Amino acid sequence: MAVRGAASRGDAEGDDRPGSTVDRRSARGSRTHTFLLDAAIDLIHGGDPAPKARQVAARAGVSDRLIFHHFADLDELFTQAVERQASQYQALTNVIPAHGPAEVRIRVVARQRRRLFEAVGPVLRASYARLPATAALTEVLAHQRRLLRRQLEVILRPEIAAHGDQAPQALETLHVITGWQCWSALRFESGHSATQAEQITVFTVDRVLR
């Protein structure tokens, strides 16, 4: 009885003690949460833009009921999966100082967009196919666009500023032609390879900034 009492007190009092039952349970829950997000991402990359709960659970190796223990609904699961994939490629949206020749920085921008969009393309296609989406997903996508716009604004600042009063229009044009929709059109509507799409992006950005 004394042993059981000690274990019970540990459960109640050990929330903030590493190695406690509560900590282990929390860690398992966190792992399961991540497994579910990664399972959804894997299924989307595998060609299913809207996987069902049972498919996600099976891919994660857990029971169906755990989906709705961790997420209010499939929209929340999808939105958090989009956020998780974006965080995995956050380095590709980081700002790079505007140093060096313009042509080098333009190539850097085009290469970063190629790496990003080729990596997260399936999830982005699935996301935009859901529009009009929930407010949460809409904000996640808008946040990613803001990061990419800011990246352009900093990396190509001198060339954009050289347009004077038309600098805002130049930035907006660059934002559009280096964005996901343009990349998707080049890759999947026009049938260009990733290398060709990158080269077209370099050419177009260069022409806008001349």
The Cα radius of gyration reads 22 Å
* Share of residues in strands: under 5%
Count every beta strand, where a strand is a DSSP E run of 2 or more residues. 0
Largest sheet report: none
Tell me, briefly, the overall form: elongated
Please, how many domains? 2
Extract low-pLDDT stretches: 1-16
What count of helical segments does DSSP give? 11
The average pLDDT score comes to 89
Output the helix-strand order. HHHHHHHHHHH
**Proportion of helical residues:** over 70%
How far apart the termini lie comes to 82 Å
Q: Any chance you could write out the topology, listing elements then pairs?
A:
Layout (H helix, E strand, L loop, with lengths): L1 H12 L7 H25 L7 H8 L6 H4 L3 H15 L13 H28 L5 H21 L1 H5 L5 H11 L2 H10 L4 H16 L1
